[in-house]
Amino acid sequence: MKKFSIPSFLQAPGRSKENRLMPYGQTILWAVIIGLLGGLIATIYYGILAGGLYVIWDVIQPALQAGFKVKGAEMFSIVLLTTIGGIIVGFLMKYLRTPGEISAVVNNIHVKQGRMDPKQNPSMFINSLTSIVFGGSAGPEAPLVQLIGSSGSKLGEKLKLHGDLIRTFTFCGMAAALGAFFGAPIGGALFALEIPHNRGLEYYEALIPSVISAIAAFVVFRLFIGYEGALYQLPQLTDMSMLFVFEGIGMGIIGAGIAILFIIIFRRIDKLLFPLKKYPVLLGSVGGVTIGLLAITIPANFITTPLFWSEFQIIDLINGISTLQLNYSLWGAVGLLVLLVFVKMLSISFTLHSGYRGGFIFPLFFIGASSGIAISLATSQFIPMPVAIIGLMAAVNVGVTKTPISTSIILISLTGGALFPVVAAASVTSYICTERVRLINTQQHRKDNSSPMHRVWRWKEH
């Protein structure tokens, strides 16, 4: 049988066996290939995820609830399922290679020229699907970044490319993952390039290839799962005003405070659970039980739940504003939304510190949207509902991830609105307020950047 070989027009030229450079045209072609491959991987992952969610929560959970036939059967069935999920995650952590998380991915960009270990992919694939399917507050974006980013990295190594090109291929994979999942290819590509740094985008040479990969992945992924444009339909504004921009600045300040509170809670839960890390099954079990107990603190007839990664729960929030106002008093609704925000912060923290794997972008958007609705209601909509929602969605995420440019573009793509100045004002304000407060401690400057400004701008790494 003839051995497969890469076509000559896609091979890096030169006689060197290592550290090969590649013409820009070939790099673009490979960016397209990585994007197409990434779109297929994302489609397969999402299909399995959707099937798992259906079986667990649309078949098994109702059957358990009906079978128990006691008061509180729904709550008991939820806690039982999240606990089972935690136990499974614990055994996966014990017997499979421990999959990396976002800090490790960011560190590899700087230290290992973007090289990701594909040997972690089976563990990440199984662990993350289990984590998400059983109700963990983490999303598919981080697992997809690992799965597709490592595919780009491995491809670069197989082609024996220079380290800088391997990093570019890794960025292409990361951008493909985020562009497909967010439904915003340019925003997803920029997010992949912003997340390694706490002060902007620095690997500029990877920008165009990453955008191309993201677009290719977006096309493949959305061809299979569908595309309906803006995911979130915010309440309509009767007119526009420059006052909204100043309100966006205010939302940026408030969102920065919420982001800092989340970071504090996240770190405290890490310290709380640290002694259990030697016992992964026990750790996963504690995480599963806690996630379930947190979920049932919110009334069953409330408009949404703190379970899952919240991409679609945000839709429930926005569409349920009228129902919320009808079913509860003003301060009753505000109080429940504040409780929901606090519960979601705890749920994310217990999820990601109990061995579960997933991303926290949509969970952070959910915290921002819940906070925005609460603030708008508490001020009798002096701050318009759309301004408060989208402003805080942006500000909370930027305060944690330090991605003001990509977050703004992603949110405008998700909402399809005309509030870009509000989003930009909230994002930049939150970034300025939280610039020295980091959750991802491996975010740093590009090591090979010789610009004196980067030496001037440096501050003590924590």
UniProtKB/TrEMBL annotation:
Q: Which Gene3D superfamilies match?
A: Clc chloride channel (1.10.3080.10)
Q: Which domain of life is it from?
A: Bacteria
User: Which Pfam families does this one have?
Assistant: Voltage_CLC
Could you tell me which InterPro entries the record lists for this protein?
A: Cl-channel_core (IPR014743), ClC (IPR001807), ClC-type_chloride_channel (IPR050368)
Lineage of the source organism? Bacteria, Pseudomonadati, Balneolota, Balneolia, Balneolales
Q: Which residues cross the membrane?
A: 27-55, 75-93, 168-191, 203-225, 245-269, 281-308, 328-346, 358-377, 383-400, 409-432
Q: What is this protein called?
A: H+/Cl-antiporter ClcA
Record-level Gene Ontology MF annotations = chloride transmembrane transporter activity
Q: What is its main location?
A: membrane
UniProt entry tagged with the keyword Cell cycle: no
* Cellular component per GO, a single term: membrane
| PANTHER family the UniProt entry points to | CHLORIDE CHANNEL PROTEIN CLC-E (PTHR43427), CHLORIDE TRANSPORTER (PTHR43427:SF12)
The UniProt keyword set, sorted, is:
Membrane, Transmembrane, Transmembrane helix
Q: Which CDD domains match?
A: Voltage_gated_ClC
Subcellular localization is given as: Membrane
Membrane topology designation:
Multi-pass membrane protein
